């Protein structure tokens, strides 16, 4: 991880501190915190879910909602250009569709939960233009080991 990527990761995590807390709590619960500084294969995919949806229905002002795990429908009506954020812990190969059409990833933010400059995961940002409503689906397949995570949500 470069110094710039580390800076962006820490700024992002300071805005969303529960991401880091959830990650550490899960690792402690499963006794998976590693104390060795060895650099090996990228961590296998261990979690993947929709985290946030924002939109531009009011012109240049963006509004959004945090998405609970296993939430199947948005609570708010989203229109215009929408941004969907997915959180990926570990390394996976992702793809997404909206109403059956492929969606390209708009951007990605690397996450370093413990400051060791080793990427622990990603926030992937999906951008879809001219949305009124529909179904967003995404899948991530682990690049190391086994693991397939699928999630989706109906956007009002």
What is the topology?
Elements: H1 3-15, H2 17-29, E1 47-58, E2 61-66, E3 80-89, E4 92-98, E5 101-103, E6 105-111, E7 121-131, E8 134-142, E9 148-155
Molecular structure report:
There is one protein chain. With 156 residues, the chain is an alpha+beta fold. It has one domain: Sandwich (Immunoglobulin-like), CATH 2.60.40. It is globular, with a radius of gyration of 16 Å. Helix content is 17%, strand content 47%. The N and C termini lie far apart (38 Å). It has two helices and nine strands, in the order ααβββββββββ. Mean pLDDT is 79; it is low at 27-39. It has a five-stranded antiparallel β-sheet, covered by helices on one side. A four-stranded antiparallel β-sheet has the order 5-4-8-9, with no helix packed on it. InterPro entries: DUF4879.
Q: Strand percentage, roughly?
A: over 45%
Morphology: globular
Mean pLDDT across all residues, rounded?
79
**pLDDT < 50 runs, ≥5 residues:** 27-39
Architecture per CATH nomenclature, i.e. the level-2 architecture: Sandwich
Along the chain, the helix and strand elements come as HHEEEEEEEEE
Number of domains: 1
Structural class call reads alpha+beta
The CATH class is: Mainly Beta
Strand order within the widest beta sheet:
2-1-3-7-6
Number of strands: 9
Largest β sheet strand count, sense and barrel closure: 5 strands, antiparallel
Reported by name, the CATH topology is Immunoglobulin-like
Number of helices: 2
**N-to-C terminal Cα separation, in Å?**
38 Å
Radius of gyration: 16 Å
Q: Which bin fits the share of residues in helices? A: 10-25%
């Amino acid at each position: 991880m470069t110094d710039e990527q580390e800076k962006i990761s820490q700024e992002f995590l300071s805005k969303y501190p529960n991401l880091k807390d959830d990650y550490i709590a899960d690792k402690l619960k499963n006794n998976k915190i590693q104390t060795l500084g060895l650099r090996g294969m990228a961590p296998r995919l261990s979690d993947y879910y929709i985290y946030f949806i924002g939109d531009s229905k009011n012109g240049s002002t963006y509004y959004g909602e945090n998405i609970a795990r296993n939430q199947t429908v948005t609570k708010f009506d989203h229109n215009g250009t929408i941004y969907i954020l997915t959180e990926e812990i570990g390394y996976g190969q992702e793809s997404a569709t909206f109403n059956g059409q492929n969606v390209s990833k708009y951007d990605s933010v690397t996450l370093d939960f413990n400051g060791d400059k080793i990427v622990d995961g990603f926030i992937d940002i999906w951008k879809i233009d001219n949305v009124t409503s529909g179904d967003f689906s995404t899948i991530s397949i682990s690049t190391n080991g086994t693991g397939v995570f699928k999630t989706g949500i109906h956007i009002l």
